[in-house]
Design goal:
homodimer, mainly alpha, Arc Repressor Mutant, subunit A, 7% strand, DNA-binding
Chain lengths: 165, 165
Amino acid sequence: MAEFQGGENLLFLTDEQLRQGIEAMFFAYRGFTADPDRILATMAYGRAHHRAVHFISRSPGTTVNNLLNILGVTKQSLNRVLRTLVEDGLVDSRVGKADKRERHLFLTDAGEALERKLSDAQRARMRAAYRAAGPEAVAGFRQVLEAMMEPELRRRYYGIRENEV
Amino acid sequence: MAEFQGGENLLFLTDEQLRQGIEAMFFAYRGFTADPDRILATMAYGRAHHRAVHFISRSPGTTVNNLLNILGVTKQSLNRVLRTLVEDGLVDSRVGKADKRERHLFLTDAGEALERKLSDAQRARMRAAYRAAGPEAVAGFRQVLEAMMEPELRRRYYGIRENEV
DNA sequence: TTGGAATGTCAACAAAGCTGACTTAATATG
DNA sequence: CATATTAAGTCAGCTTTGTTGACATTCCAA
């Protein structure tokens, strides 16, 4: 049967298989964001706030510019989100020591608390999915995801962590 | 080393592994939508139009209600999208024969052309990722995605195709 | 025949993205 | 030192895509 595809096992590359993969990606992403979204809906924040908080948590002291590059949005869009987070006391924006033009971003205790609440929910689903699928499936999952990213982003994603103040 | 995790290989469930999976999902989804988004940006359509066209193409004759359930948006939101697609001659909305309240949705030739253009771009990236990762990785990828979906949606997704007119 | 379901429409609004123009401060460079 | 560039922030206005709520129409089914 695989012979019809050119002598190799390329059945996983039929249009039908690809379509199923596309839909699985669509539905899974909905599940992926569902739990944090439910939490965020009870407060004055949205998915954009979650993303900002997540990446500040991962790289404390990251600059606004770093965040812009990671998130891939305009500074006006990010600024609106960061402003509310700073005003609400969830994010601390400190002028850089070496370069005073830069602002280094940190989560406050309240910010850490929100981050934990959101990522606990998201991790719980991820953990359940990983556990259900098993370690080998997870390795494959990661491989396909990595191959699906924009090459430039994959480099950054597996490159240097920007967390030096 | 795995023994620290409870005697099994559960290292893939550490918070750090989960965080990496979460970020991979985020970046990969960006790649996943990047190509269709670039095409859509050149016309008066957005991601919502792509989704509608995709699922009408998959299940020709599907009803508005079916589409609402699959897409998980409000009818007002979907209606705005469908209206422009019908006005622009990409989608044909036919009154149901059995139940005249229902509208059955079909792509016109122009609609099929747009769908093909968008999904060709998306499939090309998917195909490249699948090819790079290999069949076993793809099987794992699908397993994890399926486990990540909302259970109710997973049932529908693997249930009956709604394409009877 | 009447109640409820499916669909559609109007209005108003919110989140989160965008562009463009501009300021301020600080750094880097010629 | 003078100038150019960079980082960050702000204002204004726009777009897409989601949301509620209210209401009309059509039509099936009890």
